[in-house]
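Tutorial, part two.
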Amino acid sequence: GSATSMAVGYVKVNWDLCGELALGVFSAMDAGSLFLMHFTDNIWACYAGYLAFKACYMLLITIATFQIAVNLSMERYALMFGFNNFVALVIQTVLTVVVVDSKGLGLDISTQFLIYSSYFTFIAGIFLIRSIYTIVAIKCR
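Running the prediction step on this input gives:
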């Protein structure tokens, strides 16, 4: 994960044009690795899926943070990233209580992978649709 995050700084890409596309592609890869972990009983395939998920997720977070930071002034960094972390923790807590906790659904591990992969599929769809719209709008100008 750290190697892929470091690589972002060295890749020359027009992030205004391809940033959301990259977010969509890496979210789809996260969803695919979680689907792999849901549909297989092979422990080595699950480990490979976890490694792929973690690397793509770290890259996804790095790109998303970069996309946000580019448009902020220095005075707004702490407020924006503090608020983002707070919202992320709230969403993670609610999702964990609903999916994992015995007071919620109390789902087994395999079903949890299915829920989380569906979540990443939904996010990937949003980013891919938005990126296609952005690319088409820029190309039509």
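Residues 109-140 form the longest helix (32 residues). In part three we will examine how such features are distributed along the chain.
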